[in-house]
Structures are given as structure tokens and as C-alpha cells.
Amino acid sequence: MKNNKKQGRCPFSPLTLLAALLLIGGMLAIILPVLKWDAEVSAEAGEYEQLREQNRQTEARETAEEETQNQHAAPPVSLAEEGSAVRQSENAVGERAAQSAVDLSACLAQNSDFIAWLRIPGTNVDYPVVQTDDPDDYLNHTFSGKQSVVGTLFSLADADYKAPGRNIAIYGHHLRSSGEKMFTSLMRYKNPDFYEDNQTIVLDSLYRHREYTIFAVMNMKVGDWEPSRTTFSGDAAFMAFVNRAKSESLYDTGVEVGADDHILTLITCDRSYAGKEGRLVILAVER
Is 51 within 8 Å of 143 (Cβ atoms)? Predict the structure, then answer.
């Protein structure tokens, strides 16, 4: 009598198992380096979070001191003294406007190239800026000098923060990692809806506090144009620069710029536009 029971067989052939193992190995070869890169970027960017915490503590301390001073306000002055008091009050307001919640002195003490602190409400951009004649160094080193792909936001040596110049340009990395670090969140401005709620840029330099409104968001390739230009032969040349940015903007912001205005330009990579040569440029006018 024949035994009709079939012997148990492996549902996968050796070739199928081998193919599955190779596929898993290939996926791990791709995923593991990405995870390692992301972990390194996050760890190295932690230095900037420490600087932000330092600034938050400074702001809290200054707020507490101001509240204490207000509690001990001087009594009313006579009419004869009122004019002098008003002038002193106006001067005090001007001095406070020039002050920043950022501990600029502490930043300068840590790095003598420090020139300003840049903040864009609604984004992760909240970083120190250095001014340098060696930009390659800051492309690969953090604010404290540690070698890192995170780098540091920087302006070139010809940027005039003191006068100020007509155009101050700041460069920063667009990092492909989880979370948004350095200038990565600038990519959001390619969406006009995001722009509508996040138009303001705040710059606290060693010389003064400034606020800007974004007026153009544009893509370009290296060599097409020089967005970091700082000097212009006259008003006509400056307005030609401004109008080119507005004409090539991804959308019309409706923000006007005049010949007497000062602008701020932020520049970062945008591989989605033209590979390694692609750039995203955001221009803003001082209010």
C-alpha cells in the first residue's frame, strides 16, 4: 500500500532565502549610515542649544532686574525738571532698543569672530553668526571650533554691520537630517503660505538690534548672480539688484524696497533645484 502523505517541504527555496538576505543586507547598508549621520549631526548641533540656553538665562535675568527697577521707580518730578526727565527717558528707550536678550559679550568672549545673533521666529533659526575671511573653515567647524559638518553661520569680511552696509549676507548649511538645523528650515519659505505667517527676521549685532521683513525668495545656480554683493555704485545699481531679486522671486510678497533701505540676504544650498550648484536665497528689508 502506497503512502500518500507528502513530506514537509521548506516554503522557500535556497535562492529565495539568499535573495531575501541580500535585500535585507542592502537595506541595512543604506539605512545604518543615514542613522549614524543623523545621530552625529544631532550631537554636534547640541552645542548651539547650549548657547540658546545661555541666552534664555540671560533674558530671564534681565527681565527680573527690569521688574525690580520698575518697583523702585522715582517719585514724580516738578515741571521745571520735566523737560530733562523726558530727554533722559528718551535716551534710555534708545539704549534699551539697542540692547539684546542675547548675551553678545559672552558670545564674543567665546569666539572673537562673533558679529551677530540671527533669529527667525517660527523656524529653528536661532544661531550665532561669525564674520570671516576664511569661510571654508566655518563650513566645517562649529562656533567653538569643533570640526563638524554642522558648521557655523557666517558673513564674509566685506559685510558692513556697523554702518550698516546696504546688504549684509549670511551663509549657512542646509543639512539633510531629522529635525531642522542651521538653514534647513529656510526651505519652508518656498511655500508662500509659510511665508505669510513668518515674514520677520531678527538680527542682533554687536552694534544694534534690527528687524527685517522678507521681500523675495528665489532659487539660483552658482555663477548666475552674486547675492552677497555689498557695494553698489549708486542708488540705481542697488535698485537693479533689488528688482532682479523681486522679479526672480518664487512669488510676489508685495513688500516694497526703496533706494535708501538696507537689506539682509540669507544663502543656503538647495539640491532640489540644481543639484550641488543649486542655491536658495532669501532677501529681507530692514523695517
Answer: yes
With beta carbons less than 8 A apart as the criterion, state whether 188 and 100 touch. Answer: no
Cis peptide bond prior to 164, omega within 30° of 0: yes
Task: Determine the pLDDT at residue 53.
Answer: 84
Rank 5-14, 85-94, 128-137 by mean pLDDT and report only the highest. Answer: 128-137
Rounded Cα distance, 157 and 137, in Å: 13
Grid cell 548651539 is found at: 48
Hey, where are the domains in the chain?
A: 44-61+98-286
Give residue 145's region: left, alpha or beta (phi > 0; psi -120 to 50): left
Per-residue pLDDT tens for 186-238?
A: 999 999 999 999 999 999 999 999 999 999 999 999 999 999 999 999 999 99
The shares of helix, strand and coil residues in the chain, as percent rounded to the nearest 5, are 45, 20, 35
Helix (H) or strand (E) holding 42: helix 14-71
Helix (H) or strand (E) holding 283: strand 278-286
Closest residue by Cα to residue 228 from 185, 271, 268: 268
137 to 51, 125, 142, 154: CA distances (angstroms): 20, 21, 9, 10
Tens digits of residue pLDDT in 27-44: 655 554 444 546 666 777
Question: pTM for the whole thing?
Answer: 0.75
DSSP 10: -
Task: Give the CATH H-level superfamily of domain 44-61+98-286.
Answer: Sortase (2.40.260.10)
- Name the helix (H) or strand (E) containing 19: helix 14-71
